[in-house]
Design a protein that fits this description.
The protein is of the alpha/beta class. Helices cover 30% and strands 19% of the residues. Strands 10-9-11-12-19-18-17-14-15 form a nine-stranded mixed beta sheet, with helices on both faces. The protein binds alpha-D-galactopyranose and zinc ion.
Amino acid sequence: MRAMNAPLNPRFPFLLHGGDYNPDQWRHVPGVLDEDFRLFPLAGINSVSVGIFSWTALEPEEGRYEFGWLDDVMDRCAARGMAVVLATPSGARPAWLAQKYPEVLRMNWPESVAPQRNLWSGRHNHCPTSPVYREKVRQIDEALAARYGRHPALAFWHLSNEYSGECRCPRCMATFRDWLRRKYDTLDELNHAWWTGFWSHAYTDWEQIERIDPCLEGLVVDWKRYVSDITADFVRWEAAAVRRHSPDVPITTNLMAFYDGLDYARIAREIDVVSWDAYPQYHERPGETEMLAAQFGLAHDYMRSLKPGKPFLLMESCPGPTNWYHHNRLLRPGQHRLKSIQAVAHGSDSVQYFQIRKGRGGAEKFHGAVIDHEGSERTRMFREVAQVGRDLEALRPVVGSLVPARVAIVFDRESDWAQKAAAGPCDAVKQHYFDTVGRHYRPYWKRGIPVDVVNGDAPLEGYDLVVAPNLFLLRDGFAERVERFVETGGTFVATWLTGVVGPTGLCFRGGFPGPLKKVLGVWAEETDYLYDDERNTIECAAGNALGLRGSFGTGTVCEVVHPEGAAVAATYGRDFYAGSPALTANRFGKGEAWYLATWGDDAFLDAFHGALAARRGLRRALEADLPEGVCANVREGEGGRRFVFVTNFASGPRAVDLGPAPRRSLLDGGAPVSGTVELPPFGVLALAEP
Ligand code: GLA
Ligand code: ZN
C-alpha cells in the first residue's frame, strides 16, 4: 500500500514540469543540446520525456544500437537532479523493420472489401499480434531497460505512445476467435449472446467469424473488448520487458480521455501510474472556456479515477496553440497557467508538454512548444511556461495528495460502445454520451464538489452519491451492487435510456430500466425523442423531497414512465403524457434511488444535483457559492490537510469568498489570505490550510 501523500516515485518528490523532448532530431546541429540545458532552468523545467519516437536513432539498423546520444541526455539530467520519463519506441517503427518484416504492419479494411496491408507510413501502425513485432519491441525495450533501468535520472517508464487503433489481419482475426472461444465456449452460446437468428446470421463454424459485421451489436462490442484486451496484452508485454531489468521504476503510458477505441480500465491494470494528454483549446469567447473547462475537469477526473488512491500525471499539454485544431487561437495571457494549475487541482502531479523544442520539419513543426523556432527565452509562451515552473515549485507540498471524492459519476466505455453500435433507438442522442455525463458532472464542478468518474464494474462502497446518466448497457451484477449501495444508505441517480441492454447488447425483458427497475421503483414504457427545437416542461411536484420548485425545460429525450413504488417528484407539463412522472424517488433500505426520465435542461440539472448535494451534505472545496466560470478543487494530504485550488475560467474578474479562516496562499509566497478576493480573468489561487 502506497503511503499517504507519497510521491508517485519517491526519488523525485516534486511536481514534474517538462515533457516530450526530441534531442535525437537535433543530433546533427551543434550547440542545440547545450542551449536546451541552458534554457531548462530558466523555464523551471525539471523533467524531460525522451525516446518516444526514437527507434531509428536508437537502432539505425537491425541489432546495432546507438545509445551515445541518449547516455548524454540521461547524464546531463542526472547531473542536474532532473527526472527523465523514458519511453519505449514502439509507437513508430523504422522503415528497415517494415521492409524486412512486412507482417509488423497493420491490416485494416472496410467490412466488405478483401484484406489489405497498410503501407509503412505515419506512426501507430503495428499489428499487435505479430510475433516478429513483439520480438523486436522486446529486444529494444530490454536493451533500454538494461542500460538505463537503474540510471539515477530515470523517474518513469513511458510505454509506447497513445496506444490506439486495431488490426484485422488473418492472425488478429484468429486471435479474436480464440478470445471468443474462451469467452463463449460453444458456438451455441455465442449465437445466443449475439442474437444471430437475425438476418440468418447464425455461425456454424468459428472460421466464419472473419468480419466485424455491424448488424450484430454483440459482435461489434466484443470486438472492441478484444481490441482493448489485445492492446492491454501488448502493454503487458512491454511492461514485462522493462520490468525484467528495471523492477522498481513505475510504468505509465499516455492515455487520451476522449478516445473511444479502448476501454481504459483494461489498460490501467497493466501500468503503475495513469498519465494522459490534455489539449483544451481555451480562448476568450464568453462561455466557451467555462464549458470546455468543465469538460476537461471531467476528463481529468476520469483519468485520475482509473487508478484510485493515486495522483495521475499530465503527460502532454500544449504551450500555446496546437497545429491540429480547425482554428488554432492563441492562448490568452494567463490561460497556460490556468490550464496547468487546473490539472494539478484535479490530482495531477505533473504539468508536461508536447513539446519542449519545435522541430524544423515533419508533421508537428507548427505545434506549440516551450522553445520556439526563434530559439530563445524571449517568447511569451516561454515566459508563461517559466511562470508555471515557479508555481509548481511553490506547490511542492501538494505532491502525492489525493482528491477526496464522495460522489461517483459512472462513465462506462462498454456502454458507450453498445449504444453507438445499436441501430437506434435515436441517433441524435447516442453520439453524445460523454457530453451527457458532462452535463451531470457540471453542477458538482460548479460547486467545487470533488467527483470520481468510475466504470460500470467499479466498487460503489465509500461513496455517498452515485450518478449513472444514460447507462445504456449494464454489466452483470451492476444492479445488485446498486441495490446493496442504496440499501446501506447510498443515494443513486439513473436517467433515461439506462438499463436497456445487457453485456452483449441484448435488450432486457420485463421493462426498462431492466434489472434496475427494482431499486428505482419505476418502469420506463416508451420514449419520445423530440426534434432539436422542441421541448416539454418539467413541473416540480408540491412537497417533493428535494424542495425543487417551479418549471424547467426538458431537453429532447422524454421517457414515459410509471412509478412502481417510487414517489413522483416532478411531472411533464405538456403533450399526451402531461402529468406523468419526469422525476421519481424510491426509498430502498436506508437510501434512495432517483430516476430522471428526461434529459433536463441545464437549469434543471443544476437545481436537481445542487439539491441532492445539499441533501447529502457533500463537502465543497470552499464553503461558498462560486461565481459563474469559477471552479474550486480540493486535494487532501497527510493528516487530512486540505489544499484548495480556485481557478477563474471567465474572461472577466470574479470575486470569490474564501471565508474568515486564513489560509496560506502557496503561489504568493505563503501569504495568509481570507475573506473576499478578486481573481483576475483566468486567475488562479492555491491555498493550504494551516
Ligand atoms: C499526441 C501525441 C504527441 C503529439 C501530440 C500533438 O498527444 O502523443 O506525440 O502528436 O498529440 O498534439
Ligand atoms: Zn494483425
